[in-house]
UniProtKB/TrEMBL annotation:
One of its GO terms (cellular component) is cytoplasm. Substrate binds at L143, V144, S145, G146, G147, D177, G190, D194, N289. InterPro entries: ATPase_NBD, Gcp-like_dom, KAE1/TsaD, Peptidase_M22_CS, TsaD. It comes from the Bacteria. The gene is tsaD. Its EC number is 2.3.1.234. It is found in: Cytoplasm. It catalyses: L-threonylcarbamoyladenylate + adenosine(37) in tRNA = N(6)-L-threonylcarbamoyladenosine(37) in tRNA + AMP + H(+). This is tRNA N6-adenosine threonylcarbamoyltransferase. The lineage of its organism: Bacteria, Bacillati, Actinomycetota, Actinomycetes, Micrococcales. Keywords: Acyltransferase, Cytoplasm, Iron, Metal-binding, Transferase, tRNA processing. Belongs to the KAE1 / TsaD family.
Amino acid sequence: MSAASRNTDQPLVLGLETSCDETGVGIVRGETLLFDAIASSVDEHARFGGVVPEVASRAHLEAMVPTIERATREAGVRLSDLDAIAVTSGPGLAGALMVGVGAAKALSVALGIPLYGVNHLASHVAVDIVEHGPLPEPTLAMLVSGGHSSLLLVPDVTHDIRSLGSTIDDAAGEAFDKVARVLGLPFPGGPHIDRMAREGNRVAIDFPRGLTTGRDMERYRFDFSFSGLKTSVARWVQAREAAGEPVPVADVAASFQEAVTDVLTRKAVLACKEHGVANLQIGGGVAANSRLRAMAQERCDAAGITLRVPRPGLCTDNGAMVASLGAQMVLKGRAPSDLGLPADSSMPVTQIQS
Ligand code: KG4
Ligand code: ZN
């Protein structure tokens, strides 16, 4: 028996993530990550400029078994060593979710171990436990991904998550992806804008900061809007092109990124202050952004807030995050899900388990 599979009182949990275009299989022992295996179909979607649901579902089906085999091999565990299975049951693409939920049910029945159907967004919060240890309770979490931008008050990641605000139009990652397209950068655009912005001037263009002033700020205190910003960038670029002038891609990328990160970090720090929470955690794909990480650190330091952001590879979708939340469920004695649990494409952020 290998070191990783040796019996301890810490639960050994396998997590499956298939809500979008990443087939993620993570294996966690309690609060320790043993291995995180990912197979991505992102290249198959790139030429469409966005994720094609049918393509993603088929890719999950093909990748599932080899990715589970790779994860168990690299983690040095056997399926029979597992104490529980966790799976993303929502939100996400319906067909893609079904592949993960189906696989998880099969494993649960075959191995005779409990199954936990968990929320993708809560998993983005829980992943930080395998990186930085137990989550302070409460924590304020900001989730910024391709599908979501939310500010959450998290008294207990396994059963109490409250929404303080979210985007009223585009998600932060969606804005990165759309602006990248306007600038002729490949999909998904976030990492390309991040890279280009390093050579640009972030104060070159004063792009709008949505919902941060006057009545908007009162009414939408912890909500976000990125659609106006995206349109403003598109108009600015079109005006340049119409005038026959070159588009300073690096400056546009840096100025756009500055506007997004300014709004996100400003509202996150304000939410911490107004709710008396001294811990901020940032998760989701956009949390991989280098400027967001730096600005959040500066502003948290100035406000006396402890910031936790997982390493970039654990910010984007992965199986470790699901395994981490599953392990917390086991450790906190939460009841497993029913074997009839559905894939719920519109699962609300406040519903942690199905
Ligand atoms: O969490 P995630 O992997 O999938 C969803 O649940 O949506 O997030 C993907 C999003 C994409 O919009 C991608 O462009 C963005 O995260 N992203 C980034 C960076 N890396 C990924 N955005 C900005 N900067 C990055 N470095
Ligand atoms: Zn995600």
